């Protein structure tokens, strides 16, 4: 018996579950499905975005619907067109073996008369955005006075977007005896008001803690001067070559400005805000989903309902006005069991807000330093080496090898490697060699991921495994602790890239770690651990003496001020070293 069968789903739905490859129900599905199948009850379900809420209400709804009747029996309200279409498509997949069941999406930006015709032809389930549904009710194009089920999905997001009056008006046209199922990531007072006004003794289920953030999301903040915010954003992108992120700004104007700067500087970026037409919005979202865009700069309202997997970072270029909104932002990453990172870039004047957010999400932030030039160059160098190693050879190159060998015949192996890597490495080196330190000191000590305040006796290591090997910062940390038999807090600042990673321990463990990994094999492959040439890894702020000592060891300086526009032009000129760059200037 499958785990979904144990929840009470019938054979028709179990066939769809098998086709979609679902194996184990998520926590919200495990808690909600049996309740909704067995009881005629109202329900309030609190669960973070990306936890499988659509299936949690979708499967019970389909099983309860009478497909033989053409009457509209269920209404699902969702905040955005994107989410509306996504829910509709998922319900169609769930009900693929249910004969006669029709699901119709109602949303703005499409023909209202055509949508009305689809409903009249027989739609047992209608999925709608509040604005378009209210419009159709006002025009008498849809009848929902006989529905038996009403689902409010992402209720807090709908209310944050100003749909309170629309929702209350829509619900007033529905029968009192219906079942109302409310799904929300948080429970602000507006959601509680809706529940109190339109629901009768609802069953409540909670996945995690109310208003808490996902356990798979690491929260970090970087303290900079306000004028250096954009420079910090670029450095964080450069320090994460495979970044796939949403960058949040407060206003449409800031969103457009930041996106344009990123595009100008050679990044795969685009803006998403309310001034875009629906066609422009669709094009941007399509490019983002296919990863043609790696940095999507968005306002909170425009980003509502974005459901894209594998987002590696959420970057708060500016903190939202409402603390609750931070929870929605960070919920865009760390989904479907994967880990993610939520970053805040902020001036010292806003530092107190971090404590306020921590109280709401019940998670601690890690205070980190904006990477220095040398740190970025090291990361990009390893990234390039891995990229070369993992590149599939195009056999057509054989036709050109004799001529190429002739050109390169005077170079030995080591010199050839140096020259090949320098072609790309020099781009970052030239840009960052005089880049200033962007970090601002704070009264709050910079802590490691476990909450311990690091001293100057820690060591940074390089290890030749990364995301390509199935690791993220959580699983790699667990692996290192187990292999080296270290305590929970002994491994910290674990930064995972595509095919390599960095981590820190106290210096006291160095000898044992290097000995352990001297001839260490995992699945027949040698795992190499070396002391990183960058001792700090951006996890703490060093004093000037530390920086001067490191500068002397390196033989060059990354301190000092950037000169005019020259560096910017050098940086922009075809800089494709990192995965977050593009070679052409064409906008996505």
TrEMBL record:
Domain Helicase C-terminal: start-end pairs: 216-378
Organism superkingdom: Bacteria
UniProt keyword Nucleotide-binding, yes or no: yes
GO molecular function: ATP binding; hydrolase activity; nucleic acid binding; RNA helicase activity
Keywords from the named record: ATP-binding, Helicase, Hydrolase, Nucleotide-binding
SMART domains with a match to the protein in the record: DEXDc, HELICc
Disordered as annotated region, ranges: 531-588
Location of the DEAD-box RNA helicase Q domain: 2-30
Biased composition (Basic and acidic residues): 545-562
InterPro entries: DbpA/CsdA_RNA-bd_dom, DEAD/DEAH_box_helicase_dom, DEAD/DEAH_RhlB, DEAD_box_RNA_helicase, Helicase_ATP-bd, Helicase_C-like, Nucleotide-bd_a/b_plait_sf, P-loop_NTPase
Stated name of the protein: DEAD/DEAH box helicase
Residue interval(s) of motif Q motif: 2-30
Residue ranges of domain Helicase ATP-binding in the record: 34-205
Biased amino acid composition, Basic residues: 563-588
């Amino acid at each position: 018996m499958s785990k979904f069968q144990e929840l009470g789903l019938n054979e028709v739905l179990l066939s769809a579950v098998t086709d979609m490859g679902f194996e184990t129900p998520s926590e919200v599905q495990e808690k909600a499905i049996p309740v909704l199948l067995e009881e005629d009850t109202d329900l309030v379900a609190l669960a973070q975005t990306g936890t499988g809420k659509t299936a949690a209400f979708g499967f019970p709804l389909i099983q309860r619907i009478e497909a033989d009747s053409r009457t509209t029996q269920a209404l699902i309200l969702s905040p955005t067109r994107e989410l509306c279409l996504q829910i509709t498509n998922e319900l169609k997949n769930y009900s693929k073996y249910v004969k006669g069941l029709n699901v119709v999406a109602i949303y703005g930006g499409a023909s209202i008369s055509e949508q009305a015709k689809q409903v009249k032809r027989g739609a047992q389930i209608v999925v709608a955005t509040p604005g378009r549904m209210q419009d159709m009710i006002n025009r008498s194009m849809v009848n929902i006075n006989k529905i038996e089920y009403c689902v409010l999905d992402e209720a807090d997001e709908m209310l944050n977007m100003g749909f309170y009056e629309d929702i209350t008006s829509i619900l007033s046209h529905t029968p009192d005896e219906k079942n109302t199922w409310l799904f929300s990531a948080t429970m602000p007072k507006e959601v509680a008001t809706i529940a109190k006004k339109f629901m009768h003794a609802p069953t409540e289920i909670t996945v995690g803690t109310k208003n808490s953030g996902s356990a798979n999301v690491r929260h970090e903040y970087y303290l900079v001067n306000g004028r250096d915010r954009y420079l910090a954003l670029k450095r964080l992108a450069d320090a994460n070559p495979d970044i796939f992120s949403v960058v949040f700004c407060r206003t449409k104007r800031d969103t457009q400005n930041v996106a344009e700067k990123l595009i100008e500087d050679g990044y795969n970026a685009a803006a998403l805000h309310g001034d875009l037409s629906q066609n422009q919005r669709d094009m941007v979202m399509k490019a983002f989903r296919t990863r043609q865009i790696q940095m999507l700069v968005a306002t909170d309202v425009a980003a509502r309902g974005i459901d894209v997997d594998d987002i590696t970072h959420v970057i708060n270029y500016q903190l939202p006005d409402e603390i609750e909104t931070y929870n929605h932002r960070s919920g865009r990453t760390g989904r479907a069991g994967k880990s993610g990172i939520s970053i805040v870039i902020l001036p010292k004047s806003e530092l107190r807000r971090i404590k306020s957010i921590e109280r709401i999400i019940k998670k601690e932030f890690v205070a980190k330093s904006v990477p220095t030039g040398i740190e970025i160059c090291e990361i990009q160098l390893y990234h390039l080496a891995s990229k070369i190693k993992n590149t599939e050879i195009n056999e057509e190159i054989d036709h050109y090898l004799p001529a190429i060998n002739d050109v390169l015949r005077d170079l030995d192996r080591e010199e050839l490697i140096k020259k090949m890597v320098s072609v790309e490495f020099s781009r970052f080196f030239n840009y960052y060699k005089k880049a200033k330190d962007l970090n601002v000191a704070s009264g709050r000590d910079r802590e490691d991921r476990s909450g311990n305040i690091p001293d100057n006796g820690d060591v940074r290591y390089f290890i030749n495994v990364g995301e390509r090997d199935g690791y993220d910062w959580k699983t790699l940390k667990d692996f290192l602790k187990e292999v080296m038999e270290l305590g929970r807090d002994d491994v910290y600042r674990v930064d995972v890239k595509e095919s390599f990673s960095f981590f820190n321990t106290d210096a006291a463990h160095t000898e044992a770690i290097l000995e352990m990994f001297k001839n260490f094999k995992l699945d027949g492959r040698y795992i190499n651990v070396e002391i990183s040439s960058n001792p700090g890894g951006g996890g703490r702020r060093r004093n000037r003496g530390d920086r001067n000592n490191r500068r002397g060891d390196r033989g060059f300086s990354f301190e000092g001020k950037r000169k005019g526009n020259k560096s910017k032009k050098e940086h922009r000129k075809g800089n494709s070293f990192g995965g977050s760059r593009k070679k052409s200037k064409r906008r996505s």
